[in-house]
Design goal:
Its EC number is 4.1.3.3, 4.2.1.41, 4.3.3.7. GO terms for molecular function: 4-hydroxy-tetrahydrodipicolinate synthase activity; 5-dehydro-4-deoxyglucarate dehydratase activity; N-acetylneuraminate lyase activity. This is Dihydrodipicolinate synthase family protein. It comes from Streptomyces hintoniae. InterPro entries: Aldolase_TIM, DapA-like. By secondary structure, the protein is an alpha/beta fold. The protein has 12 helices and 7 strands. It has helices at about 30-40, 60-75, 90-100, 120-130, 140-145, 150-160, 175-180, 195-200, 215-225, 230-245, 250-260, 280-295, and strands at about 10-15, 45, 105-110, 135-140, 165, 185-190, 205-210. Strands 2-1-7-6-5-4-3 form a 7-stranded parallel β-sheet. Strand 5 (about 165), helix 7 (about 175-180) and strand 6 (about 185-190) form a beta-alpha-beta unit. Helix 1 (about 30-40) runs parallel beside helix 2 (about 60-75). The N and C termini lie far apart (about 40 Å).
Length: about 300
């Protein structure tokens, strides 16, 4: 096991968008360049194969190479792959591959093929923990239909299965309950549009979406919010919020990739079943991104 004092999931870890070519093949060279660019712009690490990375529609070979590419580019201590899978055995294999690739931690959704009960959730995390890497739980009850409520997270932490949680429920009240039940469990901001609220509540990191397009301003916002510097954080948060809220919408991948295109990065297409944004959605993302660029936030 890794040193319990070492917590590589702290800070701003970007759930990386995955650059695809026009034929929808993965552009690994461009992905490497993107990871390097994010770290050069102040981000602490990357999270490949999260939902923003479209892991569900990658082949096992592609998914493996994405992790290897990130590790080769920014170093394993900065890489926390998503290891979600329908079965616990498969998720454990992804965790073992992450370990063997040199990663320092992994991020794991609860069982997401069905609405699992607490016993199934505990068994799932217990199985993946056998890989020996620290696990950051990912609570996304909107998409998985399994809610890792504070009591269940405290139980997972008490059993030694998880060290942190990416909290995407949007319910900021949970931060305080979690701190009472499991004070040593690190809370990570999981949805961009509650960043300020959770940072003020004591979050130790941010598994982030919008830094894919606006890393420097996003990092400045996180650091100020985490330090309690609301004079800096609040105006930035207000300026960025029209974009940050897209991270919690169904079309978050398309929106973030469009913003990347607008700021001069390569966002590019998504794989089906994701389809292009509707004209009014695209116009809203475009206007908000161009406004952020005009304000010097890109």
């Amino acid at each position: 096991m890794t040193d319990p004092q070492h917590r590589p999931w702290r800070g701003v870890l970007v759930a990386t968008a995955l650059p695809l070519r026009d034929d929808l093949s993965v552009d690994h060279d461009r992905y490497a360049e993107h990871c390097a660019w994010l770290v050069a712009n102040g981000c602490d690490g990357v999270v490949p194969n999260g939902s923003l990375g479209e892991y569900q529609v990658l082949t096992p070979e592609e998914r493996t190479k994405v992790v290897e590419t990130a590790v080769a580019t920014v170093g394993g201590s900065r890489v926390m792959p998503g290891v979600a899978a329908y079965g616990s055995a498969e998720a454990r294999r992804w965790a073992e591959r992450a370990r063997d690739a040199g990663c320092a931690s992994v991020m794991l959704l609860p069982p997401n093929a069905y609405r699992a009960d607490d016993r199934s959730v505990l068994a799932h995390y217990a199985e993946v923990a056998k890989a020996g890497l620290p696990i950051v739980a990912y609570n996304n009850p909107i998409d998985t239909k399994v809610d890792l409520v504070p009591e269940l997270l405290a139980k997972l932490h008490g059993e030694g299965y998880i060290r942190a949680v990416k909290e995407f429920s949007g319910d900021v009240r949970r931060a305080y309950r979690l701190a009472e039940l499991a004070p040593d469990l690190d809370l990570l901001v999981g949805a961009d549009d509650v960043l300020l609220e959770l940072a003020v509540a004591g979050a130790k990191g941010w598994v982030a979406g919008y830094p894919n397009a606006l890393p420097r301003a996003s990092v400045e916002l996180y650091r100020a919010a985490a330090a309690g510097d609301l004079d800096t954080a609040l105006p930035l948060y207000r300026a960025l919020h029209p974009l940050l809220r897209w991270d919690s919408k169904v079309e978050f991948v398309q929106a973030i990739k469009l913003s990347m295109d607008i700021v001069g990065r390569h966002g590019g297409p998504c794989r089906p079943p994701r389809v292009t944004l509707l004209p009014d959605q695209e116009a809203a993302v475009r206007a908000a991104t161009e406004k952020a660029v005009a304000a010097g936030l890109a």
